[in-house]
Write a structure and sequence with these properties.
By secondary structure, the chain is an all-alpha fold.
Length: 290
Amino acid sequence: MNALIYWAIPFFILTMLAEWGLLRHRGDLAGYALRDSAASISMGLGNVLIAAAFRVVAFGLFLLLWEHRLFELDSSAWWFFPALILLEDHCYYWFHRASHEVRLFWAAHVNHHSSTHYNLSTALRQSWTSPLVGVIFWAPLALIGFHPTFILLAQAISLLYQYWLHTELIRTMGPLEWALNTPSHHRVHHGRNPEYLDRNYAGILIVWDRLYGSFEQERAPVDYGLTVNLESYNPVVIAFHEWRAMLGDVARARTWRGRLGYLLGPPGWREDGAGKTSRTLRRDALAAAG
């Protein structure tokens, strides 16, 4: 997996430069901002280093499960890689959905949504802590019988696929919009518009969102960022600000229900019932519009 990412780095650089050049002539699109892109690239470099170290742990866990696998899978069979990509993508969907709906996972994932810009550099704004909390979502693949090497390869393919989704230059992919995750679908995912909150969790296939009721079509212009935007370009602040806020809420909670709620409840949940989650924000926006 690391090798694929390392080989892709020159491609990342070249495509970001090309996009920057094209956006300079598009007054209707926000384009790049130096401090924002520098923060995103710094987050990406940190993620590569942290994920490389933790991948040893993930490989060991997958290997342990694989040794107790339920099936013997033939990696030379024609169906092996299509099945692997499909199942890995399904695992990714639920990991990504949990990363928005469970605050413990959101604390790790929120940094990816902290930019108010949307360009290829935003794709590199990767978490420093998601590798530590997300491994369990792919564990079933090893138990089914996929060797850890293939699991890590499929994860890398998914990650590389998602890079090109972070652009405003591609408006639509025509009929492919029905099956694949596209820039249009992923722009929705990065929007803080109430109707766009916690929508379109897909990695490669948008069919999971259509199947599980989390799909939203891009209609209104997307307002990028968080419901309360982070006013910092410091990578350390970006990486850990929500961890600090979450643990502070846990420390101040009056009951065990409150402590668990701040860890396992949705972002925005409050012990006193006054919080605003994405669900309540969407409901209120629809009520106001109707």
